[in-house]
Amino acid sequence: MKIQIEFFHDVLCAWCFAISPRVHKLAEENPDVEIIHRAFALAPNPDAIVQIFGSKENGKREILNHWRMANENDDEHRINFELMEQREFDYPYSVPGLLACKSAELQGGQVAHWKMFDRVQKAHLVECLNIADFEVLKKCAEDIGLDVDKWERDYESEIVFQNLAYDLEVAKHYGINGVPALVANGRYGIIGAHKYEVLVKWLEKVKEELGKREL
């Protein structure tokens, strides 16, 4: 029985960074599971931080509080909130990093999307680089072994914008308004950076429900 899990995430999301290794493990230990990556934009435009939090300063302060909490959730405590506090660039918005991942997907499918997503998140949450900077994203593409010239052409293409818009529409269709979120076979969802044991139990329940539906 094949199970398709749509993994909704944003490159800005510290909780997504914490759960991504657990989803990797879930897929590795369950060969019947296929992961489909869906982009979700918490901050869809350059002014989103101000619109949400009132000012860039308030936004960064509140977001770094989320980083601290997510770092406690992360199994390896990799999130470097202290370094990001020292950075002087504006806190980035979602779209450049999401387009980077969708461009990788055009070149190498879901595997490349995931590699790029993890690399961009590391650049953001561990190295604390400005992932709204195209050159930072380009270096991430190089780091994961993509054809960088093709990736750059794809990044500027209409199709990658359309693919991003499609993911956002899928999230809207499911009623998803926060990430990380997992949706199995378009029906069974779980939201939040749950520990691996919780994900295992969720997947077991999904398999049980799917088994009943096949009877």
From TrEMBL:
* An example Gene Ontology molecular-function term: isomerase activity
* UniProtKB keywords: Isomerase
Q: Which Pfam family is an annotated match for this chain, by its short name? A: DSBA
Question: Which InterPro entries does the entry link to?
Answer: DSBA-like_thioredoxin_dom, Thioredoxin-like_sf
State the source organism's domain of life. Answer: Bacteria
Q: Where are the transmembrane segments?
A: none
Domain DSBA-like thioredoxin span(s) in chain numbering: 4-201
What SUPFAM superfamilies does the annotation carry? Thioredoxin-like
Entry annotated with the keyword Isomerase = yes
Record flagged with keyword Isomerase? yes
User: What PANTHER family does this protein's entry cite?
Assistant: GLUTATHIONE S-TRANSFERASE KAPPA
Protein name (database record): Predicted dithiol-disulfide isomerase, DsbA family
